[in-house]
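Input:
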Amino acid sequence: MLGSPADVLIARLSARTALSREEQEALAGLAPEVRDLVANQDFINVGDMVEHVDIVLAGLTARFDLASDGGRQITAIQLPGDLVNARAVVQPISRSAHTALVASKIGTVPMTMLRRVAAQYPRLIDAFWREAAADAENAIQWLVNIGRRDAKARVAHLVCELALRSGEQPLGTAFAFNMPLTQAQLADITGLTGVHINRVLRVLREEKLLILTAKTAHVLDWQRLAEVGQFHRGYLDLAARSDDRRSSHPSAGRPRPRSSPGQPAHPPRVASR
Amino acid sequence: MLGSPADVLIARLSARTALSREEQEALAGLAPEVRDLVANQDFINVGDMVEHVDIVLAGLTARFDLASDGGRQITAIQLPGDLVNARAVVQPISRSAHTALVASKIGTVPMTMLRRVAAQYPRLIDAFWREAAADAENAIQWLVNIGRRDAKARVAHLVCELALRSGEQPLGTAFAFNMPLTQAQLADITGLTGVHINRVLRVLREEKLLILTAKTAHVLDWQRLAEVGQFHRGYLDLAARSDDRRSSHPSAGRPRPRSSPGQPAHPPRVASR
DNA sequence: CGTGACGTTGAAGAAGGTCAACCAATGTGG
DNA sequence: CCACATTGGTTGACCTTCTTCAACGTCACG
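Output:
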């Protein structure tokens, strides 16, 4: 899409971690192997020993788990540019499966090569950790989405998230973006059933908020859609990017600002719905 | 509980990462500051700049988010020995809040000191990342729990998880362990309401699977409870611990085993409930 | 001994699931 | 080019699960 697989990787890491010229060049030397996946092809299974890191070049992939009653829960999806399994660097045994939601193309970097460049540029490890951290952050948000919002809000929130992650910069108006998910897949993401997704989509359509067609989402009113989905921009801001170039492998320390002065107890916070 | 705060930290990291004598000694020099928290005291708020890593020494803490309708979703809980916020090493701005579910004691290590020792022993970074990874893994499991299981299974699964994390090694028989959660807190964890938690607990009690009292969980039949909760042991095995001492900062490469030969497409997997 | 916090219960209703049928679009082999 | 199969979407009827609201009980603690 944007260039060679290595370029895509560099661009991605740079979004959250400032990389020096040398670090970028080291990454450029990785030359990930490209793999084509057909729709619904699982490329990592539960229990697999994952000795590589994958990056999505085109298409759409997902991490999922199966409940013992056969229900599938998708726990993350990756758009082009996203890393699939940065966590494998420290946790090679995968506890979830990964599949291509549509025909996709991924770049694969063998862990051995990664470790080699990381040995020379330890800050790259931070870069990968940061990607894994963003994924974790996302899982947490999905937890809130599924745990505390009703069906309509869940779908709205998801679409908002995907719009931003697709690079849209909505301004309260209408726009459309690529979103080739089936209703069954939406169900697997949101913890609902396909039938109910269908009904929710009808409501959103009738309310002139959102129209989903086969491959694209037509957002009719970003403002209201975000309200319905309780979507707060910035929850996935790439801005975790530290502006300074400090890493976890510094040469020197720094003054030490502290936070949370430690407020005393306050009215017990217990909520539920 | 087990010794000095630093010892607790060392023990914890050692569970997933083999540490050399020198690394352990470096950690021992950290001397975390100890903080006492009363029940319901928030010690990290959304948006806080977190310049330290905390470890629970006693009590019980939780990460949570608030939906805009006021509903609270707990997205992780930490038992004594657990790290609260390992992710802060690469992502200092917290997007969730942290609170003490009961009166607790935590050890706090300033990031500056952490970076200092990490500069000398880069593999320690891996150790912290591994903790963060375990937390992420857990969030994913909770996603499956909330997204794909009914109330009874959710509660059963949670209790099973907490039993193992508390150090129990159940053998199909009855046992009890410390679990000082209120029903409202259980609701905030499982995405249910307090009232419904109460009813579910009654059913579990009547079925002679589980009795929850104020501060302790009495598991009456581990086997069946695990079945009801679809709990598969090993999902939280600490065994992510790499037996070898390879890190992401190796001095030399290694032969390169590959996985996932790339099976062709198979019958489309679409499930929902 | 009064006041929270926590647990318990009932009644009613809403949200979402299940089952089943049907439709439209697409693709495939003859 | 057509008959047929497959996938994904749509809808209705019915039922289950969970929530909501409201009341009341109980225990601990100042």
